[in-house]
């Protein structure tokens, strides 16, 4: 919990259990078969009717995606870096994510 102070005790225990249950060779295989570890090509073909938000964690806190991997010429792609937040954004600062994702409002 010292490594992730924003996590609850239950979240920390579930992550530890997940890490314990996962075989090292599976994780190594995922990285080995996905070299280079970049999905930037997928961002270049966003359909015209789609707006995409790419939420990136702080490189100082273990980010896997770095801004140099993000294409800058995609008009409908909004990129946001969360400073001070690690790779597990949904646990560390869910409100920051929700503030960045505009949800459609119901029309009455």
Summarize the structure in words.
This protein is of the alpha+beta class and 108 residues long. Helices cover 34% and strands 11% of the residues. The chain has helices at 9-21, 24-32, 40-43, 89-92, 94-100; strands at 52-57, 77-82. The model has no long low-confidence stretch (mean pLDDT 80).
Observed structural traits:
108 residues; 5 helices; 2 strands
In short:
Helix content is 34%, strand content 11%. It is α+β, with helices and mostly antiparallel strands. Strands 1-2 form a two-stranded parallel ribbon.
Question: SSE layout and pairings?
Answer:
Blueprint: H1 9-21, H2 24-32, H3 40-43, E1 52-57, E2 77-82, H4 89-92, H5 94-100
Parallel strand pairs: 1-2
In whole angstroms, how far apart are the ends? 45 Å
What overall form do the CA principal axes indicate? globular
What structural category arises from helix and sheet content?
A: alpha+beta
H/E topology pattern: HHHEEHH
State the strand order across the main sheet: 1-2
């Amino acid at each position: 919990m010292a490594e992730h102070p924003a996590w609850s005790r239950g979240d920390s225990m579930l992550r530890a259990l997940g890490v314990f249950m996962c075989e090292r060779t599976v994780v190594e295989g995922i990285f080995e078969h996905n070299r280079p570890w970049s999905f930037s090509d997928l961002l270049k073909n966003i359909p015209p009717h789609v707006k995409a938000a790419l939420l990136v964690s702080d490189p100082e806190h273990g980010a896997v995606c770095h801004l140099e991997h993000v294409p800058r010429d995609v008009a409908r792609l909004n990129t946001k870096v969360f400073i001070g937040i690690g790779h597990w954004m949904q646990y560390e600062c869910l409100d920051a994510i929700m503030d960045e994702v505009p949800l459609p409002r119901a029309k009455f």
